[in-house]
Amino acid sequence: MKKVFGIKYQVLSIKKLLLLLLAYCLLITVPCLLSPVYASYVLPYPSFMPGNKLYKVSRAVDVLKKYWYFGSIAQVKYHMGLSDKYLVEAKTLFEYRQYLLGVDALKRSDNEFRQIPIHIQQGDREGKDMSVWKQMVAEASLVHTDILDKLILISPKEFQWSPEKDTPTTLPLHELLDQSIVIRSTIPQE
């Protein structure tokens, strides 16, 4: 043992130091190898929500991006991304019981998802290999359906929205969620 400034410490040999470093690396990597996380399709983090100052800007940027994504494969990516984004927005709004805004986001997600098969078929007609995209859309469809099933469990069957100085509107939430599930289950499989 050596003593520096009144503190005793032990000098480790190079062998002991390397062995300690190897043990530390194994301690970190082995648990990761034993339980790998597999996520075939992951939804994005929620973007700006209604009420945020940048929400309208975000929506305008979404529209402008359509002109950037040209070609069948790029259009599939574009519509999948927007469908995911709006579904996450709808999910968040439903969880916070903002059903009117959630239904609007759900309808936008449905509209974007309906566009995907059109562009996949266009890519097939152009002779492009769309098998990867068909598989990705099938995985996205399963993830979307799982989210929609969970929303059915946490939301009321119908919601009566009563604006000030206007007639109330009944929102058939379960019916709309079921329609969204049907849209995602009728995509053409390879």
Quickly describe the structure.
65% of the residues lie in helices and 6% in strands. It is built from six helices and four strands.
Could you list the spans in which at least 5 consecutive residues all have pLDDT below 50? none
SS field, number of helical segments: 6
Report the portion of residues in β strands: 5-15%
- Broad structural category: mainly alpha
Counting DSSP E segments of at least 2 residues, the number of strands comes to 4
Q: What number of domains?
A: 2
Q: Looking at the structure, what is the overall shape? A: extended
CA-atom Rg in angstroms: 25 Å
- Summarize the amount of helix as a percent range: 55-70%
Could you describe the largest sheet, including whether it forms a barrel? Answer: 2 strands, antiparallel
**N-C termini distance:** 70 Å
Which series of helices and strands comes N to C?
A: EEHHHHHEEH
| Strand order in the sheet with the most strands | 1-2
User: What value does the average pLDDT take?
Assistant: 86
